[in-house]
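[job 4417] fold queue: 2 targets
>>> target A
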Amino acid sequence: MEYAYRQATEADVQALTDIYNAAVIKGGSSADTTPRTVEQRRDWLESHRSPYAVFVTEAVDGDGGRTIVGFSALSVFYDRAGYDGVTDLAYYIAPDWQGRGVGTFTLRSLLDEARKRGMRKACGIIFADNAGSIALMHRFGFTQFGLMPAAATDSTGTMRDMSYWYLDL
């Protein structure tokens, strides 16, 4: 399967909402405990001002048709000028597309975007038992720099440890 990567637009808000809410409902990858509305996702998308941005990953079929199968974001790490150049990463893959290389393609593309946008460090904050995301952190050379026990609850009511990762870009 071929994948494509591009910056998200207003037309993508429903797909962003659907993919994110599937992760929220399943639990294990978001500290949101209830699904988000389309309007909340639209506001989130609009809050990403350059050099930060939201992107979609699309599967491209043999006829050139495209289906959004994931999204990712470069977000403000900490809102103080001294942290400029450090970005918080996020990525979510549609349930039916997990385990098919979409996460690897998406994270590679996201890191390329971070470098193009002049970022010097990328940080990922991940539930410590999220094996798929932890594997991606290792694959791309991230270093774990912290673990916060019992830090966040997900939609299932499970209290989860948070792991903190960084990569020098």
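>>> target B
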Amino acid sequence: MNTIIQNILVFSAVALALLFLIRKFLWKKKTSKKSCCNDDCGCH
């Protein structure tokens, strides 16, 4: 019984690590087309 729980924990930890790496390096964020260089953005 303990080996089953250990296997589940190991596989879930590996899956979470892979998801983190995929999100961090491969998943490109969509950049907004609005730039804050306009005069009406209020950031100056």
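[job 4417] complete. Note on B: The CA atoms of residues 13 and 20 lie 11 Å apart.
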